[in-house]
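Lab notebook: predicted structure, single chain.

Context: the supervisor wants predicted structures on file for every construct in the current expression panel, including those that have not yet been purified. This is the next one on the list. No modifications to the sequence; it matches the entry in the shared construct table.
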Amino acid sequence: MGPSARALALSLAGSLALLACLAPDAPSASPAPEAKEGLRVGLPEGWVATPAGTGLDVGPKGRVVLQLEPSARALPSLEALLQQLTVQGVRVTQKDETGGFVGVRYALSLDGGGGEGFVGVKRVGARTVWCATTGGASGAEVAEAYALCREVAVGATAR
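Prediction complete. Output recorded below exactly as produced.
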């Protein structure tokens, strides 16, 4: 398997598995709320959010470019996120750690031929929301996903 194929293998499944490994197994100080709350996301024009397990699949109609997964895990540090990504051989192109949000945008190969991705975690109330782009997301879609994850919120769901 060449470098580009290895880099692409890091996309969706790798990003979500990476995120799952970053947070400690112990829940955060406050458990996730049991109330009927769902994720609220501001979607770019033409994008849709579809329930998937306990989270959401998000992207332009007919395609998933971002997965959101709520968790009771603590918010990881930027350093922990960066360490796991650099071990995978990606090139970090943007990093951010501000008031309850940690995110990293990266190139999937050192030569830039493998596309881009994003992983991030947003603290939302008593829980965190873990975000990861899928393979094949364009640079513009990765930028939209990054912005969307920064703004995710929790709200009451309709019954």
